Amino acid sequence: MILIPVKASKTYEVSVTQDFNDLRQVVDGVKSGDKIAVITDTNVEKLYLSSVIDALEGFDVCVHTIPAGESSKNLSTYCTLIQDIASSSLDRSDMIITLGGGVVGDIGAFVASTYLRGIRLVAIPTTLLSMIDSSVGGKTAVDLPIGKNLVGTFYQPNAVYINVSCIDTLPTRELMSGYGELIKYAILDDRISIDDMKVLDSSLIAKAVSIKRDIVEADEYEGGVRKLLNLGHTIGHAVESLSNYTLSHGECVVKGLRAILDISSRYYDIKDSDYTQLDSIIRMLGHDCTMPYSVDEVIDYVYRDKKKKGDLIDIVLIKAKGVVEIVSMPIDKVRRYLSEYQD
Ligand SMILES: NC(=O)c1ccc[n+]([C@@H]2O[C@H](COP(=O)([O-])OP(=O)(O)OC[C@H]3O[C@@H](n4cnc5c(N)ncnc54)[C@H](O)[C@@H]3O)[C@@H](O)[C@H]2O)c1
Ligand SMILES: [Zn+2]
Q1: What is d(CA 41, CA 9) in angstroms, rounded to the nearest whole number?
Q2: Is the Cβ atom of 274 under 6 angstroms away from ligand 1?
Q3: In this structure, is residue 215 part of a structural domain?
Q4: What's the rounded mean pLDDT across residues 278-285?
Q5: Whose atoms come closest to the Cα of 248: which ligand?
Q6: Is 209 among the domain residues?
């Protein structure tokens, strides 16, 4: 088992392992009362709930299952969950376990952060995306009809338990979506090499978690360096939203990364060898890098996005592998650079 300590507003460990054999020890280490509410979704319930319940023998466990998918990440599901948990009489010494991808993780952590002003939380992320991204860092959220993640808190878990073998049951599209974030980490930080990217194992996942951990420890509440995690996301979010979420998050992040590499190469004097290396990392897993929307559609969305300041937008640019920076760029310059971009 690989243990990754996180020292943020809470100190906790991320355990990266291959099975659920050590889950009991991790739960016992959080020192909760005798009640545990497990929040999961309809897909993950069928695959992993029984193993988790087995590991919790002796606890008084109640299970709350939400329909799988982003459409569950809303205030109505939140109200149902929190009332169900109150009916089970959990008190402040008790614990919530989230078992699922980023949807279950985000809404379950929001419940944990608000029920009785915050109760213990153990996260068991089951998608690649949630293992390397959403389960670490303490952002909780639900969506509103007018936009994603508009309601939420910062609330660190008491432990994160990653059973890497859960990836084996992921549909290919979900796997490719998670890979989009892995590509982002490989560009952000030199700790992930091109060779590392070739084998999806505990070591690669632990490296990605450590990169996110370091950024979160430096800037838990996203006042500065945490914004680097938005690499590829300004344009990626625009594409995701324009597609009406028919394209996955990771698919859009990769398109965003490819466009940002192009913008970066016009902004900086990137060495040919660096450009070729970055381009091959972005393409190495076979993602479609084409931009399916016009420059004006993308820019109109970006302009409305929260990262704009007047006519300037904060955008994360790439200088070389492991070297990125936040640049405030006039929106018209982004428009011009993007209009020259062709994949
Ligand atoms: N809090 C953060 O910092 C943060 C960061 C990134 C993304 N997010 C959020 O995460 C969400 C996306 O997360 P996601 O991609 O994990 O989506 P998800 O939770 O919807 O999971 C994707 C699908 O895979 C299924 N699934 C989960 N684990 C499985 C497994 N092991 N085997 C088979 N199927 C499995 C789910 O039931 C679902 O149908 C978004 O809501 C996004 O906003 C949050
Ligand atoms: Zn993302």
Answers
A1: 28
A2: no
A3: no
A4: 96
A5: 1
A6: no
